[in-house]
Amino acid sequence: MTMDSPLIITAAICGAEVFKEHTPHIPYTAVELASEAERCVAEGASIIHLHVREDDGSPSQDRELFRKAIDGIRARVGQEPIVQVSTGGAVGMSVQERCQPLALRPDMATLTTGTVNFGNDVFLNDQASIEAILTEIQANGVVPEIEVFDTGMVDTSLRLIKMGKLTPPLHYDFVLGVPGGMGGTPDRLDFVQSLIPENCTWTVAGIGRYELPLARKAIAEGGHVRVGLEDNIFIRKGELAEGSAALVREVATYAREVGRPLATPGAARQILGLPSHAAL
Ligand code: KMH
Ligand code: ZN
Question: For a pocket test of ligand 1, which of 147, 150, 173, 203 has the largest count of ligand atoms closer than 8 A to its C-beta?
Fold first, then answer.
């Protein structure tokens, strides 16, 4: 991964922990999710990281809600942008609940390879749960993205490779700055990226005030970035971002300034080993 490699921007448009009380720009319904995804793709995002909500904003992993959201997104952006469903859902959900969207055979799905304190809660991913989710991901022909909230989660992914359950090249997402997980300082990113196999790719999702500084560091160092209201609701100190698309625009502008080309959805598919819909 170098400054010449096209930059994949993931837009995390919804999440499970941000509500309209925090920012009016967070999408809940399929229509809101689809228009936010369309704005993000127009600004340069090639992956939409997707959670869904009930109409009142409660986080959900309901398959039918995912179906509606994905259909709505596809109607707005076409087949090429990558839809990555969450299998993390919200803390406290069962493995079965979390796996529901996988039967829709989305392009990608997240796989968190360990348990982490998550603010005052615990995001539980014991070995049996990790393997059960991975089996379900693979049974549906979905490409996993390895979510890393702490260094041990990289080690667990390496163990899964040794066990023959995961096959590199893998794509990692370093989620840095969750209270309870790894911090969001630059040295944490340097360290965690040094742990993954050479033929793998990585993106960084800085939480809160860490989002944009870590994104700039990743862009300058040839990594990929994830931004969006799931992770951070501010564009500047005290100023709400007007949707995830504003955060995508911010990092796309920075990439252009430093001479890093943006990945089209088709290029992102190639980098991540996903089939191209354009070629069909
Ligand atoms: N909402 C977090 C507890 C994922 O999408 O896979 C888990 C999460 C990770 O957001
Ligand atoms: Zn998520």
Answer: 147
For the whole model, what pTM was predicted? 0.98
Q: What is the pLDDT of residue 2?
A: 79
The atom number, within ligand 1, closest to the CA of 230 reads 10
Give the E-state strand segments of 185-231 in sequence order. Answer: 201-206, 224-227
pLDDT mean over 15-37: 98
CATH number of 9-274: 3.20.20.70
- Nearest CA, atom 10, ligand 1: 88
> What does the pLDDT read at residue 3?
77
Domains of the chain, residue spans: 9-274
Whether 84 contacts 145, CB under 8 Å: yes
- Quick one: DSSP state of residue 88? S
| Rounded distance between C-alpha atoms, residue 130 and residue 160, angstroms | 10
